[in-house]
Amino acid sequence: MPRSLPARLRIPSLGVDTSVMTLGLAPDGTVAVPPIAAHAPAGWYKGSPTPGETGPSVILGHVTVGSYGDGVFLHLKRMRPGQRVTVTRQDGSVATFAVDSVQTVSKAHFPTEAVYGNVDHPALRLITCGGTRISGGGGYTDNVIVYASLVAGS
């Protein structure tokens, strides 16, 4: 599919239907995350291909949003192989992905190459926090990563 920015993300099996904002890099050089705010949307990392282009398109979302409660990716770890994810793009086209696998990893051992490295097909990576919540607002110990591949584009 030609380049077109993501506008909306839907994960029917989880009841997710969210707008998608654009994210860059944080001051420390890591990928920025959506704001900690009520109803925070998912965010597409602009350093990755757009959904449907060849390569891994990366979309991040929160599992929780501080005092605001549940995040858009609260149940991401429940995804299973074969489940569908759709991304409506700004040009009106829809990229449909099927989940290949779901992985929970320690943030200390984040699989950077597996998430951001080149692949020979259009792919999608959905990322959120997981594992144990660190007291005192320190976030979570792990990341949950969904790996998916394009199965249809219209």
Automatic annotation (TrEMBL):
Gene3D superfamilies: Sortase
Family matches, as NCBIfam families: class_F_sortase
Name the record gives this protein: Class F sortase
Keywords: Hydrolase
Protein's UniProt keywords contain Hydrolase: yes
The UniProt record lists the keyword Hydrolase: yes
A Pfam cross-reference name: Sortase
